[in-house]
Amino acid sequence: MTDHADAGPAPGTVAHDLRVFWAYFSENRGAVTGLLFVALVVFLAIAANLVAPVDPAIQDRNAFLTPPLWQEGGRWPYILGTDAVGRDVLSRIIHGARYSMFIGTIVVTLSMLAGIALGLVAGYFRGWIETAIMRLMDVILAFPSLLLALGLVAILGPALINAMIAIAVVYLPHFVRLARASVLAEKDKEYVIASRLAGAGHVRLMFNAILPNCMAPLIVQATLSFSSAILDAAALGFLGMGAQPPTPEWGAMLAEAREFILRAWWVVTFPGLAILLTVLAINLMGDGLRDTLDPKLKRS
Amino acid sequence: MIRFLLNKLALLVPTFLGVTIAAFAFIRLLPGDPILLLAGERDVTPERRVMLEAQFGYDKPLWQQYARFLGDLTQGDLGVSVVTKTPILQEFLDRFPATVELSFCAMIFAVMLGLPAGVIAAVRRGSVFDHTVMGVSLAGYSMPIFWWGLILIILFSGILGWTPVSGRISLMYFFDEGTGFMLIDSLKSGQSGAFRSALSHLVLPSIVLGTIPLAVIARQTRSSMLEVLGEDYVRTARAKGLSPFRVVAVHALRNALITVITVIGLQIGVLLAGAILTETIFAWPGVGKWMIDSIFRRDYPAVQGGLLLIAAIVMIVNLIVDLLYGLVNPRIRHD
To answer: In this complex, which of A135, A144, A261 lies closest to B18 when CB atoms are compared?
Structure first.
């Protein structure tokens, strides 16, 4: 992995690592496709105000349940049609990208930071503190994820922010287990002992010495959790326990559209398609990341 | 094997106690007055409140309340629904067969399609079929199943008119619900068309609920088969001149199945979570829909009981899977 014939950045630098990473990652066509699609969704999320043809909140009283443009009765500018109160479906989906990206980012950040901290502490200090943390994680894992999230939202109240907190808690055990396992594997290696002998304290050892060498599986897990978070948040929104109408969150849009399924297929089809394609793209990317970063886990 | 079993059980006890603590805490963490939530009443007089506190044991210290909660639990007393006033265990057991029936059919669908697809994909590695199976299974794994259900309804109920939209059986059939399993009860009733009606109500929900397990099983079967097909004993079997079918079906698949069975067992939790969404979409009267309805009716004792029972079921199933795995794979037992 170190010897590259072409003259690039010197081995050992970040630029060199990225180059090597890209060389492997770009071999996987599915992963690159996923990456491009995710980039598109991120772009739409950032530029939603500029890209969306119509304001997603505006209700056109003359255009309730207008079909998509290519169907009879469809009309400009409602490319993917309008919903039951005359809002543009496409614009709402574009704005919904913001919520999905936001949900994924917040959930993964919360879950990963807390999970890494707990996992590092458990693996580094061992003893009763490890037992306590790991048993708590077992309890969380005993509940089916969506069910636990529902229970937590019942306590916190139905709102998008509470749904995100609940999902972050549900995903915590995966990060804790990974972080702990990696610490256990790394802890007694020479480089850690060397830095301990050099006088490094607990915090420095945990975060500066051990953590950077445990990142690969955590990054892969973060990607996969990102897509699951979008799915679970949409499910909660659909059940009325996540984002609340009129928020253009994809799951909440589906919940609003449900009663029209047999009359207006487009209000149901497109928001769900947006969820499916986004989640699929992130999963494709995650598979590629796993194969590149973590050859041990590579699918045969 | 006995030691293996005892080890696993010993690990389970603290987790189960943790689950009971979580369920116990659930009611107390909810916004609002827990006494009123438990009693399902509003604006009670101070005297009535004192009475209710004594009835639910809230006049005692917290640890005594928990001890009472555990004591009731051992006798199968999970409290009473504030809406229907029936015991929660009874409510749960009434609906559980519907969920089991649906999950069972979903699993059959997932295994019947996923297993052969995974095997063929592995045998024809790199072929168009392989790529298709992997692509479709990744899509299945990424599927928002609540949306998938709606799309199937549009297609098969709306446009084609093949399947009913919701429920377990057409309203024109009446018979005694002996087992709680509609397929069995409708057969036993002897009414013509009843079984057919029950079956047609099961098709779409089973497909929806089985989609994610199907994707997981197909992927797992493929990768286990690829691993096994590279082993020496498979080469030996081939060298002996056995037919390719025999090598794959008998020699390779049997060993590949070990991991696949584990994965199938671990999907039970996924099924129960998926049942919440699937049952909501198809108005399927199982425990998933009951949980959602209970949350919206603010029937929190029912939610508490449901959380506890479902977690217990998932834990027991996982234990059984672990034991089966230990049984078929002796190396695990001596870890």
So the answer is: A135
Angle between helices B287-296 and A145-156 (to 10 degrees): 10
Q: Residue A141 half-sphere exposure, CB side, CA atoms within 13 Å?
A: 17
Residue B62's pLDDT band, with cuts at 50, 70 and 90, is confident
Contacts of B245 (CB under 8 A, 6+ apart): none
| Neighbouring residues of A51: CB distance < 8 A, sequence distance ≥ 6 | A44, A94
Tell me the shortest Cα–Cα distance from B139 to chain A, in angstroms.
6
From chain A, the residues in CB contact with B269 under 8 A are: 144
Picking from B299, B118, B121, the residue whose alpha carbon sits closest to that of residue B216 is B118
> Could you check whether the bond before residue A295 is cis, i.e. omega within 30 degrees of 0?
no
Tell me the C-alpha distance between A161 and A167, whole Å.
10
Residue A271's identity, in one-letter code, is: P
Q: How far is CA A33 from CA A36, A105, B23, B86, in A?
A: 5, 21, 44, 54
Cα distance between residue B196 and residue B270, in whole Å: 28
Unique residue bearing structure tokens 């007694």? A188
Q: What is the distance between the alpha carbons of residues B79 and B90, in angstroms, rounded to a whole number?
A: 10
pLDDT band at B79 (very low <50, low <70, confident <90, very high): confident
* Residue in this structure with the two tokens 């438990």, named with its chain if needed: B38
From A142, A234, A299, residue closest to B15, measured CB to CB? A142
- Asked if pLDDT for residue B82 goes beyond 50, the answer is yes
CA-closest candidate to residue A171, choices A106, A121, A122? A106
Q: CA–CA separation, A32 vs A26, rounded Å?
A: 6
Reported as type and span, the H/E element at residue A80 is none
Alpha-carbon distance B292 to A154, whole Å? 11
Looking at residues B66-88, what average pLDDT do you find? 88
Instruction: Tell whether A46 lies on the interface with B, counting CB pairs under 8 A.
Output: no
Sign of CA pseudo-dihedral B9, B15, B21, B22: negative
* CA B81/CA B94 separation, integer angstroms: 13
User: With contact defined as beta carbons under 8 Å apart, do B287 and B303 qualify?
Assistant: no
Q: Would the CB atoms of B226 and A300 count as touching at under 8 Å?
A: yes
Handedness of CA B68, B69, B70, B72 (dihedral sign): positive
Amino acid at position B95, single letter: R
pLDDT confidence tier of residue A294, bands split at 50, 70 and 90: low
A81 contacts A65 by C-beta, under 8 angstroms: yes
Measure the CA angle with vertex A42, ends A247 and A170; round to 5°: 65
Q: How far is CA A34 from CA A37, A113, A278, A292, B3, in A?
A: 5, 25, 8, 15, 47
Q: Given an 8 Å threshold on Cβ–Cβ distance, is B15 in contact with A157?
A: no
Q: How far apart are CA A211 and CA A154, in angstroms?
A: 35
B139 interaction partners in chain A (CB closer than 8 Å): 276, 280
Distance CA A172, CA B47 (A): 44
pTM: 0.88
The strand ranges marked E within B7-118 are none
